[in-house]
Write a structure and sequence with these properties.
The protein contains seven helices and 14 strands. By secondary structure, it is α/β, with parallel strands linked by helices. The strands form three sheets. The chain has a six-stranded mixed beta sheet, with helices on one face. A six-stranded mixed beta sheet has the order 9-10-11-12-13-14. It has a two-stranded antiparallel ribbon with strand order 4-5. A hairpin with a 4-residue loop joins strand 2 and strand 3. The radius of gyration is 18 Å and the shape is globular. The N and C termini lie far apart (48 Å). The structure holds glutathione and fe (ii) ion. Residues 71, 73-75, 146, 163 line the site of fe (ii) ion. The site of fe (ii) ion has 6 residues, from loops.
Length: 286
């Protein structure tokens, strides 16, 4: 199998990475974790960031077969519907997404017009599912912990790990969102670290210190040796560390606007009679 070609795009506002993974010989690709710009002050969305990714795919003449999500993001809006409108492709997410939809449907007090069964997405992937990008085979691994529906996409020597591990000097994903669990995350991370040592693990975020540039990936070998939340720690020690850190984290600034959009596969709420779409904020819920 030819190795996958990966392009990575960094959104500095939310420190998020989006990736394109391609069978360059066949000219076929998938988009992973696209970002829709959102200015909370004005309530305005933007497509400059997703536009850079879309232009890169168009320049190479690649055909987009998949618009993939590793999870329902809690800190930015997905651009999946915009990417699909511009490039085509099937929008997919983990098969456990109804758990996240049910939880947040309660938090937002959605009505019966929001079925919490995953139908908003084109395709739901269970653990072990395989699919193709050209001649590349993608294997889906359920990697819950940050959220109950997080999945990892393994493609040749690359894996798109969403919010599980971050750069070795930063650590791991938080586990205090509804349905998150540190022990579950630890076990998911062990599955990821059981991949071959040379596997490139592509993250969904990087939060670099001033002393270095953002980086999209690190190998399994590097994560095993150097990850500050894992090296030299067993499961119980990790849980203590992770839960201790989570007690002091603020909510991401875009969590409440973003999750209601992301569990609808990126669709904004239906416009009201004046043609404007409105987001909901639960007051004093968190
Ligand atoms: N601490 C982040 C806030 C964003 C955030 O909460 N990121 C999530 C991913 S959606 C996370 O897992 N953070 C892990 C951590 O801060 O330990 C920042 O500096 O902007
Ligand atoms: Fe996340």
């Amino acid at each position: 199998m030819t190795p996958p070609t990966v392009l990575s795009f960094f959104d500095n506002a939310t420190k998020s990475y989006s990736h394109v993974v391609a069978d360059a010989d066949a000219g076929v690709c998938a988009v992973v974790d696209s970002v829709l710009d959102f200015d909370i002050k004005s309530g305005r969305t933007g497509t400059a960031g997703a536009g850079r990714l879309i232009d890169a795919v168009k320049q190479r003449g690649w055909r987009t077969e998949w618009v993939l999500e590793t999870h329902a993001h809690a800190d930015h809006l997905t651009a999946a519907p915009y990417v699909k409108a511009k490039l085509g492709g099937t929008i997919a997410i983990g098969a456990q997404i109804p758990i996240v939809q049910r939880t947040f449907s309660g938090i937002y007090n959605f009505g019966a017009d929001f079925p919490a069964d995953g139908r908003q997405f084109d395709r739901l992937f269970a653990d072990g599912t395989e699919f193709k990008i050209g001649s590349l085979t993608v294997r889906v691994m359920a990697t819950p912990g940050h959220t109950p529906a997080c999945i990892t996409y393994v493609v040749g020597d690359a894996a798109f790990i969403g919010d599980t591990l971050f750069a070795p000097d930063y650590g791991t994903a938080r586990c205090d969102f509804p349905g998150g669990d540190a022990r579950t995350l630890y076990r998911s991370i062990q599955r990821i670290l059981a991949l071959p040592p040379e596997t490139r693990l592509f993250q969904c975020h990087d939060y670099p210190p001033d002393s270095r540039e953002p980086r999209p990936d690190a190998t399994v070998a590097e994560q095993r040796a150097k990850n500050v939340h894992l090296a030299g720690k067993n499961e119980d020690a990790f849980v203590v560390l992770r839960e201790g850190r989570d007690k002091h984290l603020e909510m991401p600034p875009l969590m409440l606007p973003a999750v209601q959009v992301n569990i609808r596969a990126g669709a904004l709420p239906l416009p009201e009679a004046n043609g404007i779409s409105y987001l909901k904020i639960p007051v004093n819920r968190f």
